[in-house]
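Worked example

This section walks through a single chain of length 574. The input is the sequence exactly as stored; nothing has been trimmed or padded.
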Amino acid sequence: MTPTVAILALLGAGPAHAYELWGTGPLANASVQLTVDTEFRYHKTGLDNPGSRVANGPFELIPGMPVHDYFEQVGRFNLQVSKEDLSIGLQLDEVALFSNRYVLDGVEQASVPLYDPQVQSPFDDSYFLIEKMFLSKKWDTVDLTVGDTYGSFGRGLALNIVKNTDIDVDTSIRGAKGIFRMGDFDLTAITGITNKQQISQDNPNVAISPNIAHMVSGMRAEWFGPVTLGAHAVAYKFARPTEIPDAVPAQRYGADLDASVIGGTFEVNGLGGLDIYGEYARYDFRAEEMTGGKAKLPGWAAYGSVAAYPGKFIVLVEGKVSKDTEQITTFTTPEGWEPASIPTLEYERVITEDGSAAVNSNDIAGARVRVDYAAVPGSLTPYVAATFLVDKDTEGLHFNDSTEDILHPMTGIEWQQNHWAVQLNAGHRIDKRRDQKEGSDRMTHMDATIHLPLFGEESLEIDLDAKKFEWGINEQQQEDFTEMANALAWHRGEKWIFVLYQDWTDNPLIQSEGNLGFIGENFYGAVEAQYKPSGNLTWKAFYGAYKAGIRCSGGQCRSLPGFEGARVSLSGVF
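Given that input, the structure is written out below as tokens.
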């Protein structure tokens, strides 16, 4: 009922803007902003036969009867009240499933369970909760936030709990965060219990699990001078999956310390025409699940970058090394997020099952160089880049049994003239195993975005993405594969966009099947229409399918499911 009323209210609303509160209280004349993102989806599962009960005989099914297809409605409502230096925020998430139940031999069955038995909800097929809430206040020398907040120190080696909507991750820290400014010094302190997003906005909601609360506390001090210096420390106390999910979260403060990270950063800009950054972190793992039975396990990581600007060139050099650092994700990887991450030096758009092993390697070092040249400043910029990594890890996600030397050269170009634009990237990656009997993994890839003006306000946008992957020699040999993901978008004025999507893959590790069977089982197709009646309101209607796969963003990777069906969405700011 609540989402329906909210949506109807939005449909009848006028132009989007922030409203002011009336009255004479402390929030008098404060602005109120409501952000809505809601979708209604029809899932085609392809599982037509619900099975049979041997005791009562077989279940006769009408051929082609889509017993397991179902509808899903999911919504996210963000309310923010702001007045001068005071801000109050509230996020409500809700999800409901329809037609996901059937009767077999007189017994009701659920094709898709919305949540597991440990989640508390008064409804069998709907769930709603206040996902985020915060109060933030700023003074001259102090910023204070109570409730849900986020934290990242440096480049994230010690702490990187941030919102990452590219892969549908939004874990926050529910507690308190303060920033204290004292002249040239800043002191940041944060402490709280992790609050994992339980209702997915972009991915199917199936068997939602309760939040497992981990304790995170950290502090960072920074001095701003000719060289900016920083030092920080973070403490972690992780809850075990076997613990009662509804235990009092504050109890984590009384638990034993599982891991701690101390680190430091330095940054200097304009030194001899160079921008220089460096960071170091040392990890102290104490939990038995992290140390592998040892009393303690130390790990360490370092990252650095240098940028130079000679003439029309921009030269960026990055380097990193890490050893025994992935244990920090021991308890959170099954939940789909990471509390800390190290810059990958990877081109994240082409990471595959093989490349994700290097992203999550426990023993890797390397460097990346990129050179951009402003051939026509503001119009034409070609670039070349190369990454070299030595990955000594052979456990976990790795298919190889010996050290890999990874070389990944790339080139590309960015060009824009009036309303014409082209962005092109291409490269070839070789993961050479030092044991010659294992051969090498090889990948060739290309992606491009082309914007073509037509007439008036009409334009076309073409997105191309393709890669060919060839495996080395593995104990459990996988098949080589090719993938493509292309789109053609017609921009009709400022309000309408019509899109055609096409995916193709013969990757046997992909857990999805194409919907264009008349062409081949590896083909996926979809159409979408987008309508923007105003700058703050967008309607989308989608029908078709896209493939499953690995998606990476900001050093974190997730295996995302495919989709087949229809989807209607509304997003707006009021």
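What to look for: The radius of gyration is 26 Å.
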